[in-house]
Design goal:
The complex is a heterodimer. Chain A contains 20 helices and 13 strands. By secondary structure, chain A is of the alpha/beta class. Chain A is globular and about 65 Å long. Chain B folds into two domains: about 70 residues, no CATH class; about 230 residues, MetI-like (MetI-like fold, Orthogonal Bundle). Chain B is flat, with a radius of gyration of 28 Å. Classes of the chains: A alpha/beta, B mainly alpha.
């Protein structure tokens, strides 16, 4: 017995000591290494930061351009692209591009939007930077010098002569605010949000034409409730983000001007979301919640579930965007309509969230010229614009002298395109309040809107809490 | 003495008989240490591959996390040294502190309930259901361990939805008023997530404890029964004390699962509604990847590691205490 014990002790104690030393060595090595290895905090101070302002300005040198601007040349080019899973549009556009320019082939990777949000910085700073990538947000990417400055391309192709509002959301200033400054991304098309409605159910509650004021809309909601129909289908589960932000922002734009809302989203200094007009808007939303106009399991309902239920005939109205057109056309064939959320008073100007389907080019991309020419082609080529409307369901944007291609007869896309024109006339385009910072949706809007639905938060508290989160995030 | 030394001197021939006694002793000592050294070296060569993997994939990330927690860094751009201020934020910001409290609430569901129920279940199976019935019940209970947690989360998300099977069942037996979206209700979301944890971890605890019970000498039970002990007395006097070590493992594994919970919560509620089920794992993810506050996220991770250790070490000590 004693022998066994002593043997054990003899064998294990030097081993334990050595193990401790090994552990310590690894720890020390780990602590020391970051200074030399690049993706560590200490090291990156030197490397990537020097890049943004200086190199972005200097390195973009589109080949001395003819009137048409840079192009893909005639030698074989393989464009390295990252698209968003679940949306056909970029895939269809890339096929057509290759058809027209056979020397261009594609190496397409795809991922979910939420994964792209987390992976983009890594992809852009990696060894094989994408020539084209779907961008979830851009300010921090610009700050880190990861995105190509597109100003010279804009001049070469004449994008600067398009309506300024089209490109505003993709501009980032030197102070890190969005909305003005240099161009860092382009939209493949420009989506529009508003209110979809089930035509049969709307007829049942006596709606013969879209409401002209918020009061008329609220009257319809009350009628639907009385008729034992679900007035508004909505999602509000964490996985999809608080969908009640859609009606809330529509109400904000009905009761106040859009400029302060955009300023807040673009992080202009001193901007606040906690304004008297927005409080009125939030109070209306709170009344809708209390009146039972939303599904009672809204906080557990995800985006796809809500759409599936609306497609099966549950809910008279649904706040959503035109990217959903093709699905609604299929689910509710000929039975789905669309209108822009009305102004507070009949005859007032209308507004809507309208955002570009944003794509950018990595600062170190190999085929930047070709990628930029793809942007220009999407906005100006007739076939590409038709694909934008048919497959994407959205306005292709581009120069004002090009007509918007027609949508298929009977498609709700006809209504969203017409509605887009009325928003443009009233200059009512807004970005989405969920895009103000990288995590204002996850940390601010979604939890607070869920509390509103659960009766744990009121309109005033909602705006105060979100503003506090916004200020905290910007201060970090 | 001589015997032991000879044994530890494998390759050397006997020393020349003419050597002095002192010289002989010295020689023996050297050869003895050489033997040990060679033995140790060979041992380390065997351990080396595992140690390198451990160092590169466990220790180095751990050290980096500690390092990052002292910086303000967005993951790509320049990092600024901020000392301990990230830790101050973690421990002072109500939203972040709340996640730590939620983690401890989960311990009740992930740890206390599965271990208690597992102990009862195992002793019932051990006493009454040997043979085929025992095997079947063991398999059924263990099955959740085989299903990936994400898949389990999706399935339970469906079951617990407003139109899900659980509410259908409640309505069928006249409890339609209780039916609700369990994962979307402020009062029930955390218990609902906890229930999924019970389902996952009960089988693990049961099987582990059952194995421990099989190890207990049958004679102990027989003599207890001869003395007229019932199930309860048997359980309190023999089963529970003999399972000290297994119980220690059960508590350790389940407490870690509770405090470091991520997958089930992320898939079913994502931390909502509001912040009702927000746990540190979710906040670390949001802070690091959405807010791109790698330093703050790392600080929260380090605090979580420390908390886990504070809870685990006493459990380990208690469960090993009586062994020797």
């Amino acid at each position: 017995m004693a022998r066994v014990l002593s043997h054990r002790a003899g064998a294990s104690s030097p081993a334990a000591r050595l193990a401790a030393i090994a552990v310590a060595t690894v720890l020390v090595a780990a602590c020391a290494a970051p200074g030399a290895v690049s993706p560590s905090p200490a090291a990156s101070v030197a490397a990537p930061t020097a890049a943004p302002s200086a190199s972005a300005a200097a390195s973009v040198a589109p080949s001395p351009s003819a009137a048409a601007g840079p192009n893909c040349g005639t030698a074989p080019v393989e464009l390295n692209a990252y698209f968003e899973t679940g949306f056909d549009l970029p895939f269809k556009l890339s096929e057509e591009f290759t058809k027209q320019f056979p020397n261009v082939t594609w190496k397409i990777s795809q991922d979910q939007f939420t994964n792209l949000m987390t992976a983009t910085p890594r992809l852009l700073s990696g060894d094989n930077p994408p020539d084209l990538i779907r961008l979830p947000s851009m300010v921090s990417l610009v700050k880190d010098g990861l995105l190509k400055n597109l100003d010279d391309y804009a001049t070469a192709y004449g994008w600067d002569k398009w309506p300024a509002a089209q490109l505003a959301q993709n501009r980032v200033g030197t102070d890190g605010t969005r909305g003005s400054g240099s161009l860092y991304a382009m939209g493949l098309n420009y989506s529009l949000t508003g209110v979809f409605y089930n035509k049969a159910l709307a007829a049942q509650i006596g709606m013969t034409e879209p409401p002209k004021s918020v009061a008329e809309f609220e009257d319809l909601l009350a009628k639907a409730k009385t008729a034992k129909l679900l007035p508004i289908m909505a999602w509000n589960a964490t996985a999809s983000g608080g969908g009640l932000a859609f009606p809330l922002q529509n109400l904000m734009a009905a009761y106040g001007p859009t400029q302060p809302i955009n300023d807040w989203i673009f992080q202009k200094s001193g901007a606040t979301i906690d304004t008297p007009a927005n409080l009125t808007a939030a109070q209306h939303l709170e009344q809708w919640v209390k009146a039972g106009y939303f599904p009672k399991d809204a906080n557990a309902t995800e985006y796809t579930d809500a759409n599936a239920r609306f497609g099966k005939g549950e809910g008279v109205f649904m706040f959503n965007g035109d990217w959903q057109n093709a699905v609604y056309d299929k689910d509710l064939q000929g039975n789905v309509g669309f209108f822009v959320f009305p102004a507070a008073e009949a005859g007032g100007s209308v507004a809507a969230m309208s955002a570009p389907l944003t794509y950018g080019i990595a600062n170190t991309a190999k085929n930047a010229d070709c990628a930029a020419s793809f942007f220009n082609w999407v906005a100006t080529n007739e076939t590409a614009r038709q694909i934008d409307v048919t497959v994407g369901g959205s306005n292709p944007g581009g120069p004002t002298d090009l007509a918007v291609p027609p949508a298929a007869a009977g498609s709700v896309t006809n209504e969203t395109l017409a509605a887009g024109a009325s928003v443009a006339k009233d200059n009512g385009a807004m970005d989405f309040i969920a895009n103000a910072t990288g995590s204002i949706f996850a940390q601010g809007w979604t939890p607070e809107l869920q509390k509103l639905v659960g009766g744990k938060q009121d309109a005033a508290g909602l705006l105060k809490a979100v503003q506090a989160e916004y200020a905290k995030e910007l201060a970090r | 003495m001589t015997h032991a030394a000879d044994g530890a001197r494998p390759s050397r021939g006997a020393p020349p008989a003419t050597d002095s006694a002192a010289r002989r002793r010295l020689d023996r000592r050297i050869s003895w240490t050489l033997g040990i050294r060679r033995q140790t070296l060979v041992g380390w060569l065997f351990v080396l591959p595992a140690l390198v993997m451990y160092g590169v994939f466990v220790l180095q990330p751990l050290a980096l996390t500690v390092q990052y927690s002292l910086y303000r860094w967005d993951g790509v751009g320049p990092a600024t040294w901020v000392g301990l201020s990230n830790y101050v934020t973690v421990l002072s910001e109500p939203k972040l502190v709340e996640t730590l409290f939620n983690a401890f609430r989960l311990v009740l569901f992930y740890s206390v309930i599965p271990v208690t129920l597992g102990l009862v279940t195992a002793s019932v199976i051990h006493r009454v259901a040997s043979g085929r019935l025992g095997t079947v019940s063991r398999t059924v209970l263990f099955l959740p361990q085989v299903i990936p947690l994400v898949a389990a989360g999706i399935i339970w998300g469906r079951l617990l939805s407003l139109t899900g099977l659980i509410n259908q069942g409640l309505t069928a037996i006249g409890l339609g008023d209780v039916a609700r979206a369990w994962l979307g209700d402020f009062d029930t979301a955390l218990p609902a997530v906890g229930l999924i944890g019970v389902w996952v971890l009960l089988g693990f605890c049961t099987v582990l404890l059952l194995t421990g019970m099989a190890r207990i000498d049958r004679a102990l039970f027989e003599s207890a029964r001869l003395d007229g002990a019932g199930w309860r007395q048997e359980f309190m006097a023999i089963t529970a004390p003999s399972l000290r070590y297994e119980l220690g493992i059960c508590f350790t594994v389940t407490v870690i699962a509770a405090l470091a919970a991520f997958d089930i919560v992320y898939v079913t509620t994502g931390g909502g509604p509001g912040n009702a089920t927000a746990v540190p794992g979710i906040q670390i993810y949001i802070l690091a990847f959405l807010e791109r506050q790698v330093g703050l996220a790392s600080a929260l991770a380090v605090v979580l590691i420390v908390l886990v250790l504070i809870v685990i070490l006493p459990i380990q000590r208690l469960s090993r205490g009586g062994e020797r």
